[in-house]
Amino acid sequence: MTTIRSEGQSGAVISYDDLEQPSVEELARRRLVEDGLYAFCFNQVKIRYSEGTLTLTGRVPSFYMKQVLQTHLRELDGVARIDNRVDVVSSTGLSSVRPR
To answer: Which domains does the chain have, with CATH numbers?
Structure first.
């Protein structure tokens, strides 16, 4: 078990198990933000996680970016399936938006 020593005068020891673990959604968002090259394309993507399935909704500017998005997230711990519902909406008028 890895431990962290606090910087305070008490010298208390805190184990990683005692710290709140980030959610799968938070880990996914961090992974997208860390990709400096395409991070701006993923601003309108919403991420939800439930029982091993990561559901992606929102918009990206190209089908390529939709695939990049999915590729970045497929190896997250706890994710067995990705439900990629992201719509492609580009400035050229090409769109995958479904009628409502």
So the answer is: 21-100 (3.30.1340.30)
